[in-house]
Amino acid sequence: MATINTDIAQKIDIIARENNTATINLVITDSSGSAFDLSSYTITFTVYDETGTHITKSNSGGITATDGGGTPDSSGKISISLSTDDLSILPGTYKHKLVLVSSSETKTWMYGKFKLNND
Questions:
Q1: pLDDT in tens, 14-45
Q2: End-to-end CA distance of the chain
Q3: Which end of the chain is least crowded, N or C, by CB within 10 Å?
Q4: Any residues with CB less than 8 A from the CB of 47 and at least 6 apart, and which?
Q5: What is the C-alpha separation between 81 and 63, in angstroms, rounded?
Q6: What is the distance, to the nearest Å, from the Cα of residue 107 to the centroid of all Cα atoms in its chain?
Q7: Exposed e or buried b per residue across 77-96, where buried means at least 16 C-beta atoms within 10 angstroms of its C-beta
Q8: Is the pTM of this model over 0.85?
């Protein structure tokens, strides 16, 4: 029996420390290893609990970081910057995902556990 797999997402677990800052630098590539052109995508990194609810921070409704404030381009580079406010949630194990959305498609590139250690 043949299998067709359209799931491109990579499972990657992330560990961070409460009340610290963290930066995650990524280079997204296509199946041939070339930089993936991100210029037509909106990039979202979200941390959420077991029920799918964005984690509540002290000043907003959830942790959401984008391409680091720059404009997505053809380099495939993404920088996810998490501030002390982003990481001021209760220590524990959550889930995360990195999603790219264009007018015609949605791609989950990365997902996994997001563990926040005590400061």
A1: 999 999 998 888 888 888 999 999 889 888 88
A2: 50
A3: N
A4: 54, 55, 62, 63, 89, 94, 95, 96, 114
A5: 11
A6: 12
A7: bbebbbeeebbbbeeeebbb
A8: no
